[in-house]
Amino acid sequence: MAGIIIGAVIGVVHAIHLCRKLIAIGHRGAASAAWFASWAVLLWTILGPYVLAAWLVGALGVAVSHLRRPTGSAQ
Amino acid sequence: MTLDGVHTVAIIGAGVAGLATAKTLLAEGLDCTVFERAERLGGVWADGYSNFGVQVQKELYEFPDWPLPPDTPTFTPGPVFQAYLERYGDHFGVRHSLRLGSRVTRIERRPDGRPGWLIRSETSGEEGAELFDLVVVATGLYSETPNIPDCPGRDVFAGRVLHISEVKTRTPLEGRNVAVIGYGKSATDAAGEAAAVGKDVHLVFRDAHWPVPRKLAGVLPFKWGMLNRLTATLIPPYMRPSPVARWVHGPGRPLVWIYWRLVELLLRVQFRLDTRIARGRGLLPKHPVEIDCFGESTMVPRPDLIGLIRAGRIMAHRAEIERFTPAGLALSDGDEIEADCVVFGTGWKTDYAYFSNEIRAILGNDDDGFYLYRHMLHPDLPNLAFVGRVSSFMSITTYCVQARWLAEALAGRVKLPEPAVMRADIALMQRWKRSWMPFSAARSARVLLHMAHYHDELLRDFGADPFRKRGLLSPLKELMAPYQPADYREIASGEFRSSRVRHANAMRDAGMCDLKARPR
């Protein structure tokens, strides 16, 4: 549930950004921008739990790799 | 900065970039002359090494507005591609502008002080000099001079030393002990050729690099994993990162980290990179894949390469050449290998011998090459442009977009910034690349997986829509589907301008706000 909520929130923020960007560059009209924005909300909401899980595993991995290489970055 | 008053254009090189430029500028009504030193058009495709060909799938390496015939093999062989270029030249009327067998020997400023350049050339032993309003250098990243490292003891070596460009057939490799130097596409191709006809074959390279498979996990063409906007967001951010990229590489960094570690795992398993080679070393690269893929040797290897190494048919050595010996090579790891033919697959040098000293001084002599505004213009060299001095995963498409940008700039539809702004932009690109991209002699020209961002920038400059996917599912396609030449068809053909007008009319008729009709 937390993943869905976080995903939806990020999705709305992303959708607003997309709308503004697409309108600014004149991408095929406002309806098209709204369509892109809807997809952003939909995908972030559906995939939110998986993205959250991947983020948590990744955070653990980054931390471990930092411990193994204390003077370098994860890269 | 302006490109005003241009009527005559000299294009140096009749390879892919030169042909695309000539076609685009001819359509704008300019008088073009294409200088080509070889007797055939095609550049690197006119005269390649044994069994050379395109390393990516055919739908990624074709002109956006002139697709390859449907019966072309998936990985286009070099001679087939050269024939395709000949047909392109004929179809778009470029041939009558070609001056084959004509080598440019010098480019210098016009002696009368007017904008433009004096080109000195040599055709069949006869020298000529002509004035042009604009010169477009379309000879690509590298010169015709082979890059052969200076190794001690070459004079004592009893065998043959060849550069890959001299291996036109398998004959020089037949029945010989062959050592191939390098780990790029041409070196691994040469090792494969030698494995087919040679005796013992050695592949000597300093560093291993992450290979790009033709199909990810043997199933999905690599373009689906590499050439979409999702991947473009996950690579180290572009020099002017979008807010999304800033977020992804900030708080979202663990996602980026896990994505690339999974990609590494996939490649490690698929290519069996844990394979032990000479001295117990492996084929696992040192650098993470998202950094390494911006290096010099990114390649899609022939599918049997790792199999040949595992079978011992190609003996791989991860070492440097210490010196030649009478019977072969001594390596930095202490091994000595016997060879009677050494093939350098180490690329070409990056000099532009035909530039006057003044031009060279302005371009500079940085180790990673000279940087240009939009990879095309130098603020202190007006009326000189470079098309094709950029490396991307779909280079033909990138060259076509560059040629379109140049045509739009010549027509006044791209407002070029003042030289000071250009210099600031160049300095930004320099800092950005040097802060993370692996060093190479052509780093200044590397775009590779940032191709989508570079194309977007050029398209925005001349008011075209950078989001090229169409249809109801276009948002999903923008995220997941690979960008390929077909997406830029209207850009290459110039039809994007009429489609903008159609769109504006449709919006006006529907009584809707027209977002594209804003004055630029």
Describe the fold and architecture.
The complex is a heterodimer of chains A (75) and B (520). Chain A has 75 residues and is mostly helical. Chain A contains two helices and no strands. Helix content of chain B is 31%, strand content 17%. In chain B, the strands form six sheets. Chain B has a five-stranded parallel β-sheet, with helices on one face. In chain B, strand 14 and strand 15 form a beta hairpin. The C terminus of chain B is likely disordered. The interface between A and B is medium-sized, with 31 and 33 residues.
Determine the mean pLDDT of chain B: 91
Under CATH, the homologous superfamily of the largest domain in chain B reads FAD/NAD(P)-binding domain
Work out the strand percent of chain A: under 5%
Integer tally of domains of chain B? 2
Descriptive terms for the model:
heterodimer; A: 75 residues; mainly alpha; elongated; B: 520 residues; alpha/beta; FAD/NAD(P)-binding domain; five-stranded parallel beta sheet; 16 helices; 31% helix; 17% strand
Layout of strands and helices, then pairs:
The complex is a heterodimer of chains A (75) and B (520).
Chain A: H1 2-25, H2 30-68
Chain B: E1 8-12, H1 16-27, E2 31-36, H2 78-91, E3 98-100, E4 102-109, E5 117-123, E6 126-132, E7 134-137, E8 160-163, E9 178-181, H3 185-197, E10 201-205, E11 215-216, E12 220-221, H4 223-226, H5 229-234, H6 243-248, H7 253-270, H8 289-292, H9 305-310, E13 314-318, E14 321-325, E15 328-331, E16 336-338, E17 341-344, H10 357-363, E18 384-386, E19 391-392, H11 395-410, H12 419-436, E20 446-448, H13 451-461, H14 474-480, H15 489-493, H16 496-509
Parallel strand pairs in B: 1-2, 1-7, 2-3, 7-18, 8-17, 9-10, 9-17, 10-13, 19-20
Antiparallel strand pairs in B: 4-5, 5-6, 11-12, 14-15, 15-16
Helix pairs in contact in B: 1-11, 11-13
